[in-house]
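User: quick one, sequence for these C-alpha coordinates?
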Protein backbone atom coordinates (compact mmCIF):
# COMPACT_ATOMS: atom_id res chain seq x y z
CA UNK A 1 0.00 0.00 0.00
CA UNK A 2 1.40 3.44 -0.92
CA UNK A 3 0.40 6.80 0.49
CA UNK A 4 -0.93 7.82 -2.91
CA UNK A 5 -3.64 5.15 -2.63
CA UNK A 6 -5.31 7.15 0.11
CA UNK A 7 -5.82 6.37 3.81
CA UNK A 8 -8.38 3.97 5.13
CA UNK A 9 -7.81 3.28 8.78
CA UNK A 10 -10.68 0.84 9.08
CA UNK A 11 -9.23 -1.53 6.49
CA UNK A 12 -6.67 -3.96 7.91
CA UNK A 13 -3.18 -3.79 6.45
CA UNK A 14 -2.44 -6.26 3.63
CA UNK A 15 -1.35 -9.72 4.71
CA UNK A 16 2.40 -10.29 4.74
CA UNK A 17 4.96 -12.82 5.92
CA UNK A 18 7.06 -12.17 9.00
CA UNK A 19 10.69 -13.05 9.60
CA UNK A 20 11.83 -14.92 12.72
CA UNK A 21 12.74 -12.97 15.81
CA UNK A 22 16.21 -12.93 17.37
CA UNK A 23 17.00 -13.15 21.08
CA UNK A 24 19.33 -10.28 22.02
CA UNK A 25 19.31 -10.35 25.84
CA UNK A 26 18.22 -12.44 28.81
CA UNK A 27 17.77 -11.30 32.40
CA UNK A 28 16.23 -12.75 35.55
CA UNK A 29 12.81 -11.32 34.79
CA UNK A 30 12.67 -11.26 30.98
CA UNK A 31 14.09 -12.16 27.61
CA UNK A 32 14.43 -9.52 24.89
CA UNK A 33 13.98 -10.21 21.19
CA UNK A 34 14.13 -8.09 18.05
CA UNK A 35 12.22 -8.49 14.81
CA UNK A 36 11.70 -6.15 11.86
CA UNK A 37 8.35 -5.93 10.11
CA UNK A 38 7.63 -4.27 6.77
CA UNK A 39 5.62 -1.10 7.24
CA UNK A 40 1.99 -1.36 6.21
CA UNK A 41 2.46 1.83 4.17
CA UNK A 42 5.25 2.70 1.76
CA UNK A 43 6.57 6.23 2.30
CA UNK A 44 9.19 8.00 0.13
CA UNK A 45 11.90 7.19 2.71
CA UNK A 46 13.42 3.68 2.87
CA UNK A 47 14.41 4.10 6.55
CA UNK A 48 10.79 4.77 7.44
CA UNK A 49 9.43 1.72 5.65
CA UNK A 50 10.61 -0.86 8.19
CA UNK A 51 9.36 -1.35 11.76
CA UNK A 52 12.11 -2.57 14.11
CA UNK A 53 10.40 -4.01 17.19
CA UNK A 54 11.91 -4.72 20.61
CA UNK A 55 9.96 -7.49 22.30
CA UNK A 56 10.10 -8.33 26.02
CA UNK A 57 8.83 -11.70 27.24
CA UNK A 58 8.58 -12.48 30.97
CA UNK A 59 10.92 -15.21 32.17
CA UNK A 60 9.70 -18.62 33.26
CA UNK A 61 6.29 -18.36 31.60
CA UNK A 62 4.44 -21.64 31.10
CA UNK A 63 1.45 -20.31 29.18
CA UNK A 64 0.62 -17.58 26.69
CA UNK A 65 0.96 -14.16 28.30
CA UNK A 66 -0.96 -10.94 27.76
CA UNK A 67 0.98 -8.32 25.82
CA UNK A 68 1.09 -4.51 25.66
CA UNK A 69 2.24 -2.45 22.67
CA UNK A 70 4.14 0.61 23.94
CA UNK A 71 4.35 3.84 21.91
CA UNK A 72 6.67 6.77 22.66
CA UNK A 73 6.26 10.56 22.54
CA UNK A 74 6.94 12.95 19.65
CA UNK A 75 10.62 13.54 19.00
CA UNK A 76 11.91 10.67 21.15
CA UNK A 77 15.64 10.06 20.71
CA UNK A 78 15.74 6.89 22.80
CA UNK A 79 13.33 4.44 24.41
CA UNK A 80 14.60 4.44 27.97
CA UNK A 81 11.20 5.27 29.45
CA UNK A 82 9.49 2.62 27.33
CA UNK A 83 12.10 0.00 28.25
CA UNK A 84 11.56 0.79 31.92
CA UNK A 85 7.82 0.32 31.42
CA UNK A 86 8.49 -2.99 29.66
CA UNK A 87 10.62 -4.20 32.57
CA UNK A 88 7.89 -3.25 35.04
CA UNK A 89 5.33 -5.18 33.00
CA UNK A 90 7.61 -8.22 32.74
CA UNK A 91 7.87 -8.37 36.54
CA UNK A 92 4.08 -8.57 36.53
CA UNK A 93 4.05 -11.44 34.02
CA UNK A 94 3.07 -9.27 31.02
CA UNK A 95 4.93 -9.16 27.70
CA UNK A 96 5.45 -5.94 25.76
CA UNK A 97 6.37 -4.75 22.29
CA UNK A 98 8.12 -1.41 21.72
CA UNK A 99 7.20 0.02 18.32
CA UNK A 100 8.96 3.16 17.01
CA UNK A 101 6.56 5.56 15.33
CA UNK A 102 7.14 6.62 11.71
CA UNK A 103 9.98 9.14 11.21
CA UNK A 104 11.39 8.43 14.68
CA UNK A 105 14.47 6.69 16.08
CA UNK A 106 15.76 4.05 13.63
CA UNK A 107 13.01 5.12 11.20
CA UNK A 108 14.36 8.67 10.91
CA UNK A 109 15.29 9.58 7.31
CA UNK A 110 18.88 10.64 6.76
CA UNK A 111 19.44 14.36 7.24
CA UNK A 112 16.51 14.90 9.63
CA UNK A 113 16.00 14.73 13.39
CA UNK A 114 13.92 12.08 15.10
CA UNK A 115 10.28 13.12 14.73
CA UNK A 116 11.02 16.20 12.61
CA UNK A 117 8.95 14.94 9.67
CA UNK A 118 6.13 13.52 11.80
CA UNK A 119 4.28 16.74 12.69
CA UNK A 120 4.35 19.25 9.84
CA UNK A 121 2.13 22.16 8.75
CA UNK A 122 0.49 20.19 5.97
CA UNK A 123 -2.83 18.47 6.72
CA UNK A 124 -2.40 15.90 3.95
CA UNK A 125 1.02 14.86 5.26
CA UNK A 126 -0.31 14.73 8.81
CA UNK A 127 -3.07 12.39 7.66
CA UNK A 128 -0.55 10.25 5.78
CA UNK A 129 1.80 10.00 8.77
CA UNK A 130 -0.91 9.23 11.31
CA UNK A 131 -2.39 6.67 8.93
CA UNK A 132 0.98 4.96 8.69
CA UNK A 133 1.26 5.05 12.50
CA UNK A 134 -2.10 3.34 12.98
CA UNK A 135 -1.65 0.75 10.24
CA UNK A 136 1.81 -0.10 11.55
CA UNK A 137 0.33 -0.76 15.00
CA UNK A 138 -2.29 -2.96 13.36
CA UNK A 139 0.46 -4.85 11.53
CA UNK A 140 2.24 -5.30 14.85
CA UNK A 141 -0.97 -6.82 16.24
CA UNK A 142 -1.02 -9.15 13.21
CA UNK A 143 2.50 -10.26 14.13
CA UNK A 144 1.57 -10.75 17.79
CA UNK A 145 -1.25 -13.07 16.67
CA UNK A 146 1.31 -15.37 15.02
CA UNK A 147 3.34 -15.92 18.21
CA UNK A 148 2.28 -18.73 20.55
CA UNK A 149 4.00 -16.94 23.45
CA UNK A 150 1.25 -14.29 23.49
CA UNK A 151 -2.42 -14.45 24.42
CA UNK A 152 -4.02 -12.66 21.48
CA UNK A 153 -7.27 -12.30 23.43
CA UNK A 154 -5.50 -9.96 25.86
CA UNK A 155 -3.67 -7.29 23.86
CA UNK A 156 -3.29 -3.82 25.32
CA UNK A 157 -1.69 -0.60 24.18
CA UNK A 158 0.05 2.18 26.09
CA UNK A 159 1.10 5.50 24.60
CA UNK A 160 2.54 8.79 25.79
CA UNK A 161 1.67 12.15 24.20
CA UNK A 162 1.83 11.58 20.40
CA UNK A 163 1.94 7.85 21.15
CA UNK A 164 -1.31 8.18 23.07
CA UNK A 165 -3.01 9.89 20.10
CA UNK A 166 -1.94 7.02 17.85
CA UNK A 167 -3.07 4.51 20.48
CA UNK A 168 -6.55 6.03 20.83
CA UNK A 169 -7.16 6.06 17.08
CA UNK A 170 -6.00 2.45 16.79
CA UNK A 171 -8.28 1.40 19.65
CA UNK A 172 -11.14 2.96 17.71
CA UNK A 173 -10.55 0.91 14.56
CA UNK A 174 -9.11 -2.39 15.81
CA UNK A 175 -11.22 -4.41 18.26
CA UNK A 176 -8.35 -6.80 18.96
CA UNK A 177 -7.07 -4.17 21.42
CA UNK A 178 -8.87 -4.90 24.67
CA UNK A 179 -7.24 -2.43 27.09
CA UNK A 180 -5.55 0.95 26.72
CA UNK A 181 -3.46 3.24 28.93
CA UNK A 182 -3.13 6.77 27.55
CA UNK A 183 -0.58 9.06 29.23
CA UNK A 184 -0.65 12.83 28.60
CA UNK A 185 -3.47 12.07 26.23
CA UNK A 186 -6.21 13.98 24.49
CA UNK A 187 -8.59 14.07 21.56
CA UNK A 188 -9.62 16.69 18.98
CA UNK A 189 -6.34 16.83 17.05
CA UNK A 190 -7.20 20.12 15.34
CA UNK A 191 -7.97 21.72 18.70
CA UNK A 192 -4.65 20.49 20.08
CA UNK A 193 -2.74 21.87 17.09
CA UNK A 194 -4.57 25.20 17.44
CA UNK A 195 -3.74 25.61 21.13
CA UNK A 196 -0.60 23.59 21.86
CA UNK A 197 2.56 25.40 22.96
CA UNK A 198 4.60 22.70 21.20
CA UNK A 199 3.55 23.51 17.62
CA UNK A 200 3.73 27.32 17.42
CA UNK A 201 5.66 27.31 14.12
CA UNK A 202 3.29 24.81 12.52
CA UNK A 203 0.23 26.75 13.70
CA UNK A 204 1.53 29.99 12.21
CA UNK A 205 2.05 28.22 8.89
CA UNK A 206 -1.49 26.84 8.99
CA UNK A 207 -2.76 30.40 9.45
CA UNK A 208 -0.60 31.71 6.60
CA UNK A 209 -2.06 28.99 4.40
CA UNK A 210 -5.57 30.18 5.22
CA UNK A 211 -6.64 27.51 7.69
CA UNK A 212 -8.89 28.18 10.64
CA UNK A 213 -9.33 25.78 13.53
CA UNK A 214 -12.61 24.58 12.02
CA UNK A 215 -11.27 24.10 8.49
CA UNK A 216 -8.28 22.26 9.91
CA UNK A 217 -10.66 20.03 11.86
CA UNK A 218 -12.44 19.12 8.61
CA UNK A 219 -9.13 18.39 6.89
CA UNK A 220 -8.10 16.02 9.70
CA UNK A 221 -11.41 14.18 10.11
CA UNK A 222 -10.01 10.85 8.93
CA UNK A 223 -7.48 10.73 11.79
CA UNK A 224 -9.62 12.20 14.58
CA UNK A 225 -9.94 9.77 17.52
CA UNK A 226 -13.40 11.05 18.43
CA UNK A 227 -14.71 9.81 15.07
CA UNK A 228 -13.76 6.22 15.91
CA UNK A 229 -14.17 5.85 19.68
CA UNK A 230 -17.93 6.33 19.95
CA UNK A 231 -19.42 2.99 20.98
CA UNK A 232 -16.03 1.29 20.67
CA UNK A 233 -16.41 -0.55 23.97
CA UNK A 234 -12.87 -1.20 25.15
CA UNK A 235 -12.93 -3.61 28.07
CA UNK A 236 -11.27 -0.83 30.09
CA UNK A 237 -9.06 2.23 29.71
CA UNK A 238 -6.81 4.41 31.85
CA UNK A 239 -6.17 8.09 31.10
CA UNK A 240 -3.41 10.06 32.84
CA UNK A 241 -3.63 13.81 32.24
CA UNK A 242 -1.75 16.86 33.48
CA UNK A 243 -3.70 19.74 35.05
CA UNK A 244 -1.47 22.49 33.62
CA UNK A 245 -0.58 20.91 30.29
CA UNK A 246 -0.03 23.45 27.50
CA UNK A 247 0.99 20.79 24.95
CA UNK A 248 -2.10 18.55 25.24
CA UNK A 249 -4.51 21.02 26.90
CA UNK A 250 -6.71 19.61 29.70
CA UNK A 251 -9.90 20.31 27.75
CA UNK A 252 -8.62 17.91 25.07
CA UNK A 253 -8.02 15.32 27.79
CA UNK A 254 -11.57 15.87 29.02
CA UNK A 255 -12.89 15.19 25.49
CA UNK A 256 -11.08 11.86 25.44
CA UNK A 257 -12.42 10.97 28.89
CA UNK A 258 -15.97 11.68 27.68
CA UNK A 259 -15.44 9.56 24.55
CA UNK A 260 -14.20 6.52 26.49
CA UNK A 261 -17.15 5.48 28.62
CA UNK A 262 -16.02 4.40 32.08
CA UNK A 263 -12.41 5.50 31.62
CA UNK A 264 -10.31 5.42 34.77
CA UNK A 265 -8.58 8.78 35.24
CA UNK A 266 -5.56 10.13 37.07
CA UNK A 267 -4.44 13.77 37.10
CA UNK A 268 -0.90 15.05 37.67
CA UNK A 269 -0.26 18.41 39.37
CA UNK A 270 2.10 19.31 36.55
CA UNK A 271 2.35 20.48 32.98
CA UNK A 272 3.31 18.23 30.08
CA UNK A 273 6.87 17.65 31.22
CA UNK A 274 6.57 17.55 35.00
CA UNK A 275 5.69 13.87 34.99
CA UNK A 276 9.42 13.27 34.40
CA UNK A 277 9.95 13.87 38.11
CA UNK A 278 7.60 11.03 39.03
CA UNK A 279 8.15 8.82 36.01
CA UNK A 280 8.43 5.68 38.13
CA UNK A 281 5.08 6.41 39.82
CA UNK A 282 3.42 6.85 36.43
CA UNK A 283 4.94 3.61 35.13
CA UNK A 284 3.87 1.73 38.28
CA UNK A 285 0.33 3.03 37.81
CA UNK A 286 0.24 1.88 34.18
CA UNK A 287 1.73 -1.49 35.15
CA UNK A 288 -0.71 -2.02 38.02
CA UNK A 289 -3.61 -1.14 35.71
CA UNK A 290 -2.68 -3.78 33.12
CA UNK A 291 -1.85 -6.38 35.77
CA UNK A 292 -5.26 -6.05 37.42
CA UNK A 293 -7.35 -5.69 34.28
CA UNK A 294 -5.71 -8.59 32.41
CA UNK A 295 -6.45 -10.74 35.48
CA UNK A 296 -10.14 -9.80 35.26
CA UNK A 297 -10.02 -7.46 38.26
CA UNK A 298 -11.42 -3.93 38.40
CA UNK A 299 -8.43 -1.63 38.89
CA UNK A 300 -9.01 1.45 41.05
CA UNK A 301 -6.42 4.12 40.25
CA UNK A 302 -5.23 6.80 42.66
CA UNK A 303 -7.19 10.02 42.25
CA UNK A 304 -3.92 11.83 41.61
CA UNK A 305 -0.19 11.25 41.64
CA UNK A 306 1.69 13.69 43.85
CA UNK A 307 4.22 15.62 41.81
CA UNK A 308 6.04 18.92 42.27
CA UNK A 309 4.37 21.84 40.48
CA UNK A 310 7.33 23.72 39.02
CA UNK A 311 6.88 27.06 37.26
CA UNK A 312 9.30 28.82 34.91
CA UNK A 313 8.64 32.41 33.88
CA UNK A 314 9.03 36.09 34.69
CA UNK A 315 8.31 37.63 38.09
CA UNK A 316 7.63 41.32 38.40
CA UNK A 317 6.94 43.64 41.33
CA UNK A 318 7.43 47.29 42.27
CA UNK A 319 10.67 46.57 44.15
CA UNK A 320 12.68 44.30 41.81
CA UNK A 321 11.10 45.03 38.44
CA UNK A 322 11.06 42.10 36.01
CA UNK A 323 13.31 39.08 36.42
CA UNK A 324 13.52 35.49 35.31
CA UNK A 325 12.11 33.15 37.93
CA UNK A 326 11.73 29.47 38.74
CA UNK A 327 9.03 28.64 41.28
CA UNK A 328 7.82 25.65 43.27
CA UNK A 329 4.21 25.74 44.46
CA UNK A 330 3.92 25.31 48.22
CA UNK A 331 0.15 25.87 48.48
CA UNK A 332 -2.87 25.76 46.15
CA UNK A 333 -6.44 26.73 46.98
CA UNK A 334 -8.23 23.97 45.02
CA UNK A 335 -7.86 21.48 42.19
CA UNK A 336 -7.73 24.33 39.66
CA UNK A 337 -5.11 26.23 41.68
CA UNK A 338 -6.97 29.51 41.22
CA UNK A 339 -5.02 30.86 44.22
CA UNK A 340 -1.49 29.60 44.85
CA UNK A 341 1.74 30.40 46.64
CA UNK A 342 5.20 29.68 45.23
CA UNK A 343 8.73 29.73 46.56
CA UNK A 344 10.77 31.35 43.80
CA UNK A 345 14.44 31.46 42.84
CA UNK A 346 15.53 34.59 40.95
CA UNK A 347 18.89 36.13 39.98
CA UNK A 348 18.43 38.52 42.94
CA UNK A 349 17.80 35.79 45.46
CA UNK A 350 14.90 33.83 46.91
CA UNK A 351 11.47 35.36 46.65
CA UNK A 352 7.86 34.39 47.23
CA UNK A 353 4.67 34.99 45.31
CA UNK A 354 1.03 34.65 46.34
CA UNK A 355 -1.47 35.23 43.61
CA UNK A 356 -4.58 34.55 41.60
CA UNK A 357 -4.29 32.75 38.26
CA UNK A 358 -5.88 34.61 35.36
CA UNK A 359 -5.25 33.22 31.86
CA UNK A 360 -2.41 32.16 29.55
CA UNK A 361 -0.01 31.75 32.46
CA UNK A 362 -0.52 35.24 33.93
CA UNK A 363 -1.16 35.63 37.66
CA UNK A 364 -1.75 38.76 39.76
CA UNK A 365 -0.84 39.01 43.41
CA UNK A 366 2.01 39.99 45.69
CA UNK A 367 5.75 39.46 45.55
CA UNK A 368 7.42 38.65 48.87
CA UNK A 369 11.08 39.49 49.52
CA UNK A 370 13.32 40.72 52.36
CA UNK A 371 12.13 44.33 52.01
CA UNK A 372 8.49 43.39 52.41
CA UNK A 373 5.43 42.62 50.31
CA UNK A 374 4.79 44.46 47.05
CA UNK A 375 2.11 44.20 44.33
CA UNK A 376 3.33 41.83 41.66
CA UNK A 377 2.69 39.70 38.61
CA UNK A 378 4.01 36.28 37.69
CA UNK A 379 3.87 35.01 34.14
CA UNK A 380 4.77 31.34 34.10
CA UNK A 381 4.39 27.98 32.44
CA UNK A 382 4.18 24.81 34.50
CA UNK A 383 6.58 22.03 33.57
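Assistant:
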Amino acid sequence: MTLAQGPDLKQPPPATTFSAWTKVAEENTLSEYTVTLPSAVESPFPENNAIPLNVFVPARTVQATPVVIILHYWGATDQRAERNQAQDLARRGIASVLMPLPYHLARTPKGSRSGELAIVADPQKLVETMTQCVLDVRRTIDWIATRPEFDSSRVGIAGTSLGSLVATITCGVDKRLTHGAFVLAGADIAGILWKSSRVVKQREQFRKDGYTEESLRKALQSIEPLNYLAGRGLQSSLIIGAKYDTVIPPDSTDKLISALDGAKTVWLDTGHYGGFFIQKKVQNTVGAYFEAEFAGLDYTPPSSLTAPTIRIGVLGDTEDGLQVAVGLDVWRSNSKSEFFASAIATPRGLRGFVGFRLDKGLSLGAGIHPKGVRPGVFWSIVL
